Amino acid sequence: FCMLSHLTQHTRIHTRENSYKCEECGKVLNWFSELIKHKRIHMGEKPYKCEECGRAFNQSSTLIKHKKIHIEEKPFKCEECGKAFSLFSILSKHKIIHTGDKPYKCDECHKAFNWFATLTNHKRIHTG
Question: What is the pTM (predicted TM-score) of this model?
Answer without folding.
Answer: 0.45
